[in-house]
Fold this protein.
Amino acid sequence: MKVITIAKTGDEETVEPGFAELVQQISGKELRQCYHCLKCSAGCPINFAMDWAPNQIIRMVQLGLQERVLSSSTIWLCASCETCSTRCPNEVDLPTIMDTLKEMAIQNGIRSQQAGIQTFHRVFLNCLREYGRMHEVSLLALYKLLTLNPFEDMGLGIKMFRKGKLNLLPSRIENVHELETIFRTFGESKRSKI
Ligand code: SF4
Ligand code: SF4
């Protein structure tokens, strides 16, 4: 790790030289071939809300600006819609890279400015781990409790329940324990469980 000074602003930045390699290794995706044509950012439907455009995230990963990348709102706002990866001339798999960066941020204990999204991410994965499929009632109940907002969207929940869109009781897939192997393969530790 080394510290550089940005000539334009005078700000000090920490550079982690092995960061790009590490992201590639964990995600299994190449990002060095990105030549910053901006096609991904031009098509991204969430770009307007992000602090850094998707191509800027790739550039910062290439430069080793680990702290800036892992604390950015962009990685949490990415909706994994895959618009960017279908437009990319170099087949850079941005959604998978964004997911990897999310997990790296969690492993490094970096709290997102979008704390609600980070909590939702954990609750979502926890639900998959527990049942092997989504159970909306468990997901929403836990999410609302953890975000200390238990009554928000209650009216919508009741409407959905009346229309038969919500099952109160969860069901498990067969051999749900096999999912544990997948979580472990991708570095999801027990520690990160809720
Ligand atoms: S579209 Fe692909 S090559 Fe172009 S900037 Fe985005 S990631 Fe890089
Ligand atoms: S996958 Fe993420 S980065 Fe790519 S276009 Fe969709 S929201 Fe934007």
Observations:
- The two ends are 31 Å apart (CA to CA).
- Residues 44, 46, 54, 78-84, 94-95, 98 surround iron/sulfur cluster (ligand 2) (CB under 6 Å).
- The chain has a mean pLDDT of 89.
